[in-house]
Amino acid sequence: MRWATRSVESGELLLPGWLRPHRGEQRWSVVAVVLAAIGLQLALPDSFVLRPRPAAPAFEAVLCVLLMVWNPGPINDRRPWLRQLSLGLIGLLAITNVISTVLLIRVIVGGHSVSAVHLLASGAAIWLTNVIVFALWYWEFDRGGPAARARGDRHQPDFLFVQMTDDRLDPNWRARFLDYLYLSFTNATAFSPTDTLPLTRWAKLLMLNQSLVSLLIVGLVAARAVNVLPSG
Question: What's the burial of 127, exposed, middle or buried (CB within 10 Å: 0-12/13-18/19+)?
Answer without folding.
Answer: buried
